[in-house]
Every structure is written in C-alpha cells, then in structure tokens.
Amino acid sequence: MLITEKTLSAWAWVTFSISSFIVEGGLSMHCHDVQSTSKVVQLHSSLSLTCAFRRECFESLEANASLIFWKMNDTKMIREQYRFNETVSIVTIKHFDAVKGYLTCHINIKGAPNILHRFTIKAGLPPEKPKNISCVSYREKNLTCSWDQGHETFIETNFTLLRIIEKKGNDTCMNSNKNTCSFLFPRIHISGHHKMFVMAENALGQAWSDPLNLDVWQTYRTGPPQHVSVFSIRGQSGSLLVTWQNPTAQLPDVGLLYNVQYKMVGATKWIQVTEKEEIINNSIVIENLKP
Hints:
The structure is a single chain. This protein is an all-beta fold. 1% of the residues lie in helices and 50% in strands. The strands form 6 sheets. Strands 3-1-10-9-5-6 form a 6-stranded antiparallel β-sheet, with no helix packed on it. Strands 13, 14, 16, 17 and 18 form a 5-stranded antiparallel β-sheet that branches. Strands 2-4-8-7 form a 4-stranded antiparallel β-sheet, with no helix packed on it. A hairpin with a 3-residue loop joins strand 7 (82-84) and strand 8. Residues 1-28 have low confidence and may be disordered.
C-alpha cells in the first residue's frame, strides 16, 4: 500500500488510501496502472481518480480504457462522471460528503467485468486546539491531566501531553483518541513548577493548546478518610460522634482540611457540617439531630 497526502483546505478534508486487488476473470498479466498519489481534499469538494490500461494488453485482451467503468460503494456510476481515452479513465466526484467510501475501477474483457483497482476513501477533519486543561496528582500513583479535545475528527487523532519541568527538562505522555493522559509513579514530583501543553495531531494537521502553568503541590489530592465510624452519645439523644483516620495517601507535613456532611434516611439533600476545616483529633460531634 502506498499513501501520500497533500493539503488542500484549512477546515475539512478527505484522505485516500489505495490498495491493489487481484483482477477477476482470469487475466494472466498485470494490465493496469493507477496514480498512486493519495489525495487530501476539502469535504464536499470535487475529487478525481485515474485508472490506466496498458497498451501491451490491448491486442491480447481486445480491450482499451474506453471499456473501463467505475463503481462507488458497489453502485455503478453514471458515464457522465468519468472521461477516457485509449489508455486512461478518470472519474470525478463533485461532492464527496461521506465519512468513508469505496471506489473501484472495472473493465469489460470480452463481455466479462473485471476489477482493476479499489480505492478506500476516508473523510475527516484536522484537530481543533485543545482547551480547558486540568491536572490532578495522587502521591506515589500518578499525575493525570484531561482536556477538551474539540470537535470529532472522524479519523485517528493522537494527543501528546508535554510537560516542561522547571530545571529538569521535558517529558511527554501520548494517547490516541482520548482526552486524558497520566504520568505514572515514579515519573511524578511532589513540588516544583510545571508548564503543560497538549498537542493534537492526525493525518490532516496538528493543533497546540495554550500552556497551563502548575505549582505541582496544588494539584495533589489525598485518598478518602479511612475507617469512618459513628457513635451515639450517652445522655445526648440528638447528637452523634463521628470519627475517622487520616487517608493513607497524603503528603508528609501537610495539614488536612475536611468536609463533613450528612443526610437523613430517605432524603436527597446533604447537610453541610464543616467545609474545608482543620479538625483536631479526627472527630466531630453533630448536634440537634432529629430522631
């Protein structure tokens, strides 16, 4: 298979890949040539493909290129869509608006149709500029970033997350057709300044995000509190004691802030008790509860 590409538009495109097939009908020689130049054209614009019949086959097969006909997705195309001379047939599609399609050129040899060549057509779009990058870190696990990848491109699109680490160089994380990528432990850092970029790239072009500047410690998230327990308090029928242990995944020498909330059985609304508060001894009494 031979694939080449040429950019003709800034916003929508069609790519072609060309593959050879064995000629049907018992032809014992290779009698055709194609322009093996894959094309990239604007979606909904016109495109042309060429199928040539070799002169050395004229006499033995009693045929020339005037007997070539074309099919699109196995449906015969009208003769007005292609032109020919003795050796070459050229088909033109004025508006190609499918995500994927197939063109085949055929020739009638002594009344029997034979496939000369098959073209696979894929339509796609160049990627948009990635936006809204956000990152989160978990100690000794990963640094994960996600982003808005923009419109559907309809073809394989690769995303590269580039991390520029202050005084330590560059690092990359690659992913296909997804809007998230992770640097895994030990490729993570507890502190320092990072600059993050996302590059989106496919056969039709590439696009870079704006940079995201990170102070890494601000991206860290702890694991959940462990062993949460609830106890009744003797003599205080409207109160409960809630206790817990610190998360196992947390940064050393960093204070923790807690949100505590509850809801009544059968209720949908949560009631906030504390919001991002430092709580001594990992316990709190919730008062004025209704039985």
